[in-house]
Every structure is written in C-alpha cells, then in structure tokens.
Amino acid sequence: MRMKRFQTSLGVCTLSVGEGAIENRLPVLTAGRTLFIITDKTVFSAHRAFFARYFPDCTPFLLPAGEKGKSEKQLFKILKRMSALGLKRDCRVFAVGGGAVGDVGAMAAALYMRGVSLVQIPTTLLSQVDGSIGGKTAINLGAIKNAAGCFYPAFEVVADPMFLRTLPRREIKCGLGEIVKYAALDPALFTRLDDMETAALSSITFLSELVADCAFLKAEIVEEDERDEGLRRCLNLGHTTAHALELFYSLSHGESVLFGLLAETRLAADRGVCERGFADKLTALILTSIAVSPVNIPDFKRIHSALQLAKADKKNVSDGMVRLSVPVAAGEWTLFALSFEDYASETEAILREIFSK
User: Fold this and answer.
1) Which pLDDT belongs to residue 146?
2) How much of the chain exceeds pLDDT 90, in percent?
3) Distance of CA 129 to the CA centre of its chain
C-alpha cells in the first residue's frame, strides 16, 4: 500500500492505494463514528462479505446502478434517510462504488448539516485512478450530465485492487481510457505504456500497478488548482468530444475518452498545436487501447448530430467558440479554441477517416 497526503480546501486528504488498503485503513476510519454507507445494488451484490465485515451494523443505502443513481430524486432520498436516522454532524459517510456513487454520495455529504466527513471507497478502475479524487460532486439534470454539483473533497480515499478483480471487461476498458489520458500528461507513465500490446493493456494486474501513479498525479494537480480555474483543466484532455459521444451513443465514459482524445489530438496536430511526432505516438497508443476487448465502434456516420452536444460543454463561454484541452508534447498541454463549425467538421472528418478503413 502507498499513501499520499495533499492539501484541500477542507484540510488534508489522504490517498491510500494498493493491496491491503482496505484492511489497513477501514478499522481506523470506522472506529468511534456513526456511519452512513452509500453504494449501489451491483456493488452490494458483488461484495456482500466486505460490507458484512467492515460495516456489520449498517444497512447501506442502495442506489440504482450507473447514471440512474445520479438524480435529484436519489440525492434527496439519501438526505431524507440520513435525517430520519437522526445523524449528526460528527457522522461519516462512506461512498462505496464507481463514479456515480462517488458523485452523488459526496454531494449528499456536502449538503447534509452543511457538510459531514466523507470517505471515498472507489470500486472501479475509472474511479480509482480519477473520479474519487479531487472533490467534484454532481448529479445530472435531465439530459445534462453533471449539471448540478459542488466541490467537496473527501477526508480519505481508499483504493484497493481487491474490488477490481470482479470487474467486467467493459469496466476495465473504461478505466483504461483515463489511464491513457494521464499518460499524455506524464512522460514517465507514457513511456511505460508506449508500444504496449493489446494483451498487456487489458491485464487488470498490470493496470492495477498504475492506479497509484495516476491518483497521485491527480492529487498534485488538484492541490494546485482545486476549483478548476487553471492547471486542473488539463484533466479535460479529450473530454469535450468525449462527453458528447458518451451522451449521444451511450458509450462508457472511458471508451468515450479514448475516441475524444484521439480526435482532439489529431485535430491539434493538424492545426500545428501538438507536435506531430508525439501526436503519432499518442494516437497509436489510443488505437491499441480502443482495440482492447470489448470493441465498440460507434456509427460515425451520425457524428455530426453527436457533436452538437459539445456546444453545452462547461468549458465553453458565450462567444460561441468550442474550447478544448489538448496535448502539445509529452507532459505538456494547452487550451485551444475554435469555432463550432470548424470543430465539428474537422472532428467528423478525422473520425470518419480513421474508422472507415
């Protein structure tokens, strides 16, 4: 197990990552506290022994799995349950699950009694390398993803690979998308992944070894820019296009990030923003990652309709330009703006060219 502490607006957050993290940290984090556990039905079913061992006197609040749990209705159900139990400000919320559980669980912790202690226990590869760290909370409003939320960092994040061994293949690939994003930002990580075969990139044993590196990198970024006003925007590499594809095609977030990062890297290289040599290496890594099973290539004949959703991206302002966080070189990135018309036509041409072969 590796540990890292970093400063947040609420104090110090501890990251505990690796084998034995649960066994070492949960007895400490649960001692002498009134606990409230939030998870989803899938996680609870897969890990009943875990809940029985570490939370024997608690009945978890069970969310619907996935994005259905990130709703105003579910958020207020949680808050009403906490109130009905008579929980006080000294209680501690444990959000045990993937990104959706972490988002709505953290938002409930932020709102209840104007803020109670929160521990994130991410159970997916995606949430362990990215989603559980940094304090972003959210629910969806209608079709708009993460439209309401706040910043509320956890007291501790406990990421143990014990949960990853039960993940379906699609969830592993979902986490791979964010790992590739971090590789674009970190030369050492990129070197580890460069020229990797598809088999290695689908190995949960290998990918588990990268969790701490990704998580600790994000912690360093968040410590410098918690509120997403500068450096933290580098974490949006590929995400403008990714969010549009995710909503339109019902792809997983990680799959969408791979396609989004591919398109935006090529676009940046074509416009002279990203070094061509690095762009070629990064796109090769992305294409190898896309080839990891299960392979799900959207129908890019409909891409123009999908890209309309990029107009609602939170990075955009009222000038009508689309703003992208794009790689420049190994470990370097920049914000890049272009008209929606240029963005849509160039992105469409790139994805159709690559996936019509």
Assistant:
1) 85
2) 90
3) 7
The two three-digit tokens of residue 325, written as one number: 């966080």
Mean pLDDT over residues 281-298, rounded? 95
Long-range contacts of 210-213 (CB under 8 A, 24+ apart): 210/129, 210/179, 211/17, 211/18, 211/125, 211/128, 211/129, 211/159, 211/161, 212/2, 212/4, 212/15, 212/17, 212/18, 212/159, 213/182, 213/186, 213/188, 213/189
Q: Are residues 162 and 180 in the same domain?
A: no
Same domain, 238 and 337: yes
Q: What are phi and psi of 75, to 5 degrees?
A: -60, -45
Single residue among 144, 166, 188 that ends a domain in this structure: 166
Structure tokens at 336: 């890049």
Q: Verify that 112 and 183 share a domain, yes or no.
A: no
Predicted model pTM: 0.95
CATH classification at residue 222: 1.20.1090.10
Residue 318 pLDDT greater than 70, yes or no:
no
Q: How confident is the model at residue 317 (pLDDT cuts 50, 70, 90)?
A: low
Whether residue 158 sits in one domain with residue 210: no
**Furthest-apart CA atoms within the chain: distance in Å:** 61
- For CA atoms 325, 217, 257, 150, give the dihedral sign: negative
What is the per-residue pLDDT across 243-284, written as a single tens digit (0 to 9) for each?
A: 999 989 989 999 999 999 999 999 999 999 999 999 999 999
| Domain identity same for 229 and 141 | no
Contact 137, 103 (CB under 8 A): yes
Task: Check whether residue 195 and residue 310 sit in a common domain.
Answer: yes
Burial bucket for residue 41 (CB in 10 Å: 0-12, 13-18, 19+): middle
Q: Are the CB atoms for 127 and 160 separated by under 8 Å? A: no
Query: Where among 109, 139, 166 does a domain terminate?
Result: 166
Mean pLDDT of all residues belonging to the chain: 95
Tell how strand 92-97 and strand 35-40 pair up. parallel
Structure-token match 């994003």, residue found: 181
